[in-house]
Amino acid sequence: MTYHLEPQRRLPARDFDVVVAGGGTAGVVAALGAARQGARTVLIEAKGYLVGIAVEGGTGLHSFYNLWKAFPGVQKRQVVCGIPQEIIDRLGEADGTTGHVEMIRGYDYDSVCTAIDTEIYKRVAHEMLVEAGATVCVNTLLVGAIADGASLRGVIAESRSGREAIHARAFVDCTGYGDLAASAGAQYTEPNDYAVANSIGVGGVSVEGYYQFLESNGALTELARGPRSGQPDRIVRLRGDLNKLPSSFREAARAIGMATTTTTVHDDYLMFIKLNYKMPVSPTNRDAAAEAELELRRRQAKAIELFRRYVPGCEHAFIARSSPSLCIRRGRLIACDYDISLDDVLQGRHFHDDVLAYGFHDSAPRLQIKDGGTYGIPYRALRPTGIDNLLVAGMMITADHDAHMSTRNTVCCMGQGQ
At 375, which helix (H) or strand (E)? Predict the structure, then answer.
């Protein structure tokens, strides 16, 4: 490899109290929390919109509630409130969510379905940040950290307006990939223990037709009903057991990593159909990620063919939305002062420095929190070891894969951000 030596440059600099790197699921809430307390807060996001994985990769938000329906006699409790619930309230005012509707089938996985409109969520999140007085820098890349021993002094950002330094007293890494923490010298690993994905919104479909396809094959495993296109008591969530679907559909779906789960808040539209691909190396590898991007888009096209061929009312299905880049479930794992264990999660442990209670596990019903309870996320779990003024929030914490299958979920990330 040959090298090029960059000349020194005098960069314009701005001063803030708090820098939040990454305007995704956790970053939006982190920036709202800081700005509302009077901190001069800047949010740096590479894309032109906010909220990240919650509007790109998911099938609804998991979960504001404990798993009470799976445990007869256990009390129903909303365990995540605060700014995350305020976002749902604002989405409700804009007809951008079902709210928290109870699951009819599949309540041993999640007791509620909170489906959202991806595009309305992007707008509402941005509006809330502006109202809070945060400085929102979208279309802006975080390209480096300015470190002084165990402390951060600032970050380097670059946009079409040029390259600049941003100084602050406190920093929060919500990039998902751990970009700021890695640049600051934090210890990390890259487990590469998940598939990457690119979910699509599918138009020209019949939600009821998809329901009939699953039900007629005895495959329906999840069902929730709620408001859809302004009408109450409509299907808003579906999932099927792939093993019970026709063999030709099943084999083709498995070959492209297609999940059967979907949510919607609109007639004739499936908000998420998820296509998965297991990369041979970490998604931080640029060249391997480029190959994965193309493979995922090929899989999207094959998914549309499956819907057109097999699902009644979906003969004219088409891709109405896709993510601008592949979505990860984990990039870098940042070493923090406390590492949440699977036993902590399943036994429902709480800590003296809890910042959040959470009650959902993405591997349910195989793994469930004891007695429909909750466990705590301690402040120490958000503190990268050896760096004084940096926090991380989102999918970058929790080494154990099965424990991470809880802490990486959207509502947990939102709560960590606050």
Answer: strand 375-378
Counts of helices then strands in the chain (DSSP H, E) = 11, 23
pLDDT(58) > 90: no
Is residue 360 within 8 Å of residue 409, measured between CB atoms? yes
- What is the C-alpha separation between 260 and 273, in angstroms, rounded? 7
Answer yes or no: are the C-beta atoms of 35 and 83 closer than 8 Å.
Answer: no
How many whole angstroms separate alpha carbon 306 and alpha carbon 253?
Answer: 8
Sign of CA dihedral 226, 72, 348, 81: positive
DSSP 69: G
- Please spell the DSSP secondary structure of 386-404, one letter per residue: T-TTEEE-STT--SSHHHH
Q: For residue range 337-359, what is the model confidence (pLDDT) as tens digits?
A: 999 999 999 999 999 999 999 99
Q: Give the integer Cα–Cα distance in Å for 319 and 88.
A: 26
Percent of the chain with pLDDT over 90: 99
pTM exceeds cut of 0.90: yes
Element of type H or E holding 415? helix 410-417
E strand or H helix at 156: strand 151-159
**Token pair in block for residue 149:** 């021993």
Answer for the pair 140, 44: CB distance below 8 angstroms, yes or no: yes
Largest CA distance in the chain: 68
* DSSP output for 285-307: -HHHHHHHHHHHHHHHHHHHHHH
Q: Which residue has the tokens 């970058």?
A: 396
Residue 382's closest CA among 156, 143, 171? 171
Residues sharing a CB contact under 8 Å with residue 97, sequence separation 6 or more, in sequence order = 88, 91, 114, 115, 116, 117, 265
Position 129 pLDDT exceeds 90:
yes
383 three-class SS: coil
